[in-house]
Structures are given as C-alpha cells and as structure tokens.
Amino acid sequence: MNVSKILYLILFALMSADVFAAEDPAIKLGKTLDTALDVLYSHGCVDDGDEQKQAKVRQILKETYDWTIIVRYVAGSNWKRFQPSEQDRFVQLIEALALKACLGTLKGKARPVIEFQKTRNSGKRAEVSFVVIIDERPIKGAFRFARRLSGWEIYDIVIENISFGKNYRQQLNDYFRRRTAAELIEKLEKLMKAENLNESLIF
Amino acid sequence: MKASFSKILASFLLTQIALFSSEVVEESVISDEELFGEEFADIGPVVQDPLESLNRVIFQINNFLYINVLDPFATGYSLIVPDRVEKSASHFFRNLKYPVRLFGNLLQGEFAGAWVETGRFVINSTVGLAGLFTPADKVEGFQPISAEDIGRALASWGVGEGPYFVVPLLGPSNLRDIIGLMGARVVHPLNEPFSVWHEWEERFASGAAEFTVNSPSFINGYIVLKEMAIDPYSSIRNAYTDGRRATTRKSAR
Fold it and tell me: Average pLDDT in the B5-15 region?
C-alpha cells in the first residue's frame, strides 16, 4: 500500500464522519413523504380502502423513522409512568390516532404539494421548515429532527406554530395529575374503537 | 521491509481514524436525556383557566353543535358548491375584513403592513371583482402577509392575554382576544354598530353567509385536533393559546 492510497483512505474516513454530521434530513424526508403520497394518490392503489392505505403509509414511515422517539418526546418525564408493555402499546396507539387524523385531512383533496424551505442544522438537532399546499391553502410547518445513531430521526412536528410534541405533553401532564397510565391506555383503546380503527391492519 | 512498514502504518492510521470518526459520530448524537428530558423552556406561562369547569360545559355544547350541525352542514356545503365558487366566496369575505387587518397594523405602527393590506384591498376589490379573486397575489410587493388583528395589536402594547374562555359557538378565546373581537366588530363593515346593512335580516343573512363560507376550514381543523387528542378540551385550549402566543410574539417584535 503506497502513501497516496493511505492518504485517500484517511480522506475517505474523515469525509464519512463529516457527511454523517452534515447530511440534510430534508432529502430523506422528501423521499419518504413522496412515497407515502404515492400510496394515497397513485392509480395503482386505487382499489385499496382507507385502512389498507393507512397501513401501507404506516409501514413506509416505520421503515424510515422511529415512532418511539416521537412518542417518548411527547411523553417526556411521563414516559416512566408506563410499564414497559404499556410503553409499546402507548406508542402504537398514538401512532395510529395521529396517522388517522393526519390522513383524514387529505381525504377527498388533491395531492398536496410540499415545498421544503430552509434546514437549520445545529449538529445534534435540525429543523426543516416547509409549506404544504392543500386545496390551494398554504400551511406552514416544520419537522424537528434529532441526530441518533440510526441517523436523523423526527421527534416533533410543528403546524402553524402548534407543536405536536408540546401539545401532547401538556395534555399528558394534565391527564396524569388525576389518572394513571393504565387508564390512559384504556381511554386510547376506546378512542380507537370509536374511530373504527382496525387493529389487524394497523399493528 | 518497506512494504510491511507501510501496511503497519496504514492499519495504525486507519484504526486511529476509525476511533476518531466514531467519537465524532457519538459526540454529534443526541442522548436520551438531552432529547426526552427537555422541559419545553419556551412553554411560557401556563394557560390561565380559572373558569375551567364552566368552559368545559360550553366546550361540550359547542362540540355537540360542531359535530352534529356544523360538520354535516360544512360537508354538504363543500359537496354542493363547486371548489372555485367556494374559494371565491372565501376570498370575498376575507377582503371585507380589510379594515380589521388595517387597524391591526396601524395600532401596532406597522405602516408597511398597512400599505400592503391597502394595496391588496384596492387591487382585489377592483381587478379582482369585489374581492372574489386575488390578483394582488401576483403583484410584486402586495403578496399576502400575516393577517393582523386587534387582539394582536393589544398584545403588542403589552396587554396580557387574561383568562381563557370558551365562547358559545365561536370556541376558544381569551379575555384580550374577546376585546379584540369587539374592536373588530366596530371596524367591520358588515357588523354593528357601523354596519352597511340597516335591517337585522340583512345583517343576519350576511353573518350566516360568512359563517357558512368559513365553516369547512374551521371544522376540518377542529376535527383533526379533536381526533388526535387525549383530552380534546386541553388540546384545543393549548393549541389555541400556543398559536396566538407565537403570532403575538411576532407582532411584538
């Protein structure tokens, strides 16, 4: 091995570490959202019902991002109130309800156009701001990312200045002042039934 | 001998670099404690809700009306009325709210904003056929800006938001925004006391038409928040307050 090869290897290794820190999370996010929107709007999926589409979208998102991070962020210090089995169930329930509500906003509407704006990257965290145009109405928002060993992971979503994480955490703080984690799981399960969410397709 | 020395040197350097790189990666990764222990330093003061019991009752009544009356009504309206007509009707009523946005800007000393709103009103009212269309969107310097209102102007003067209220039919608000809403009625051309309509039937009809036009977007937002919520009352109260605090902070800058 000559000196030039060694230098190339050194350069490559240093660049890999640098790329890890500098990668723009908007790129992976854009591809993921595009794939998810294809499921909802492409002719190939026209025969799928809402639940099948939701299950496919969920799978796409799950392959790219870890919902546990979003839900743990939402829970904050309340996370410790759940037993380990309850934690898993809590993640599933929040994921299902949030997805159902988000996809519900797109029902009957033309494919939304998402324009990514700037990415603010502070090393360990990044924020990708965007404008989504639904029915010609622009809605501003931002995805917040945390750098984990698996790469950039979403931990919060902000829509029109309302943080998903903050809003849920405030609700949880209020809820746990009077009730327990088991009661919360029970309540969310009832909500799932009221929303007619089919568990076999979702989980 | 020379070749083996190169190999040893290469493996030594690569090991060092691998260690260095993994350290760089680990240092740039956020820990559980940092991420999940965050206590929302920017959460601001908690929402003052001394009338929570009463507010929850009004919230339930509103919720019943929204789900059983407004939602079917808004859905029917969206189904029957073509999208273009729906949008034009929405533009028309938005254009009529120009005085509210103008005063909102002027009361904050935002003369540039007042100028843009005035320009948009003139262009949309004339070229845009009484505000049915929004040609101003394409005119340089007159693109849409954040809609100011009197509640935001009061916030920029340092008036606190006061206690949280759920207003029958209208939904979430606070004392400052209710005062702002009353101020907006004064300057709105279709509302009393200075309404262009003289008969109550005319005022009622125009109010009902505006309510109808705005109902689909309102109910959509409401249902999304409600469906996702653990406690819908708390979710909507906090979402309303956070949204208003964020926009009033921008106004106060």
Answer: 63
Distance from CA of B35 to the nearest CA of A (A): 7
- The residue count for chain B: 253
Give which of A194, A94, A89, A82 is closest to B230, Cα–Cα: A94
**Residues 164-203 (B) with a CB less than 8 A from some CB of A:** none
The CA-CA-CA angle for residues B191, B196, B202, to 5°, reads: 75
Instruction: State how far the Cα of A125 lies from the Cα of A98, in Å rounded to an integer.
Output: 23
Under an 8 A CB cutoff, do A136 and B223 touch? Answer: no
* pLDDT digit string (tens) for chain A, length 203 residues: 565 666 565 555 555 545 555 588 999 999 999 999 998 888 766 667 777 888 888 889 988 999 999 999 999 889 999 999 999 999 999 988 888 888 877 877 889 999 999 899 988 999 999 999 887 788 899 999 999 998 999 999 999 888 999 888 888 988 998 899 999 999 999 888 876 655 554 54
ipTM of the complex: 0.76
Separation between Cα atoms, residue B222 and residue A101, nearest integer Å: 11
Token pair 């329930």 is at which residue?
Answer: A93
Strand ranges across the sheet with A151-159: A113-121, A125-134, A137-148, A151-159, A162-163
| Cβ-based neighbour number of residue A158 at 10 Å | 21
CB contact at 8 A, B213 and B86? yes
Best A139, A161, A187, A196 member to test B by mutation, with max B CBs in 10 Å, is A161
Beta-carbon separation of A104 and B43 below 8 A: no
| Cα–Cα distances in angstroms (integers) from residue B43 to residues A13, A158, A167, A177, B155, in the given order | 41, 14, 10, 18, 17
- What letter represents residue B22's amino acid? S
Closest chain A residue to B236 measured between Cα atoms? A167
B30 and A184 within 8 Å at the Cβ level: the answer is: no
pTM for the complete prediction? 0.79
Residue B59 token pair: 């919230």
CB A123 within 8 A of CB A146: no
- Which has the higher per-residue pLDDT, B16 or B94? B94
Answer whether B104's CB lies under 8 Å from B150's CB: yes
Residue B199 host element (H or E): none
- Give B 53-112 residues with CB within 8 A of chain A: 83, 87
Is B40 in contact with A10 (Cβ distance < 8 A)? Answer: no
- Count contacts between A and B (CB, < 8 Å): 125
Q: What sections of chain A are H helices per DSSP?
A: 3-22, 25-41, 50-64, 67-75, 84-106, 164-176, 181-194, 199-202
* B139/B136 Cα distance (integer angstroms): 5
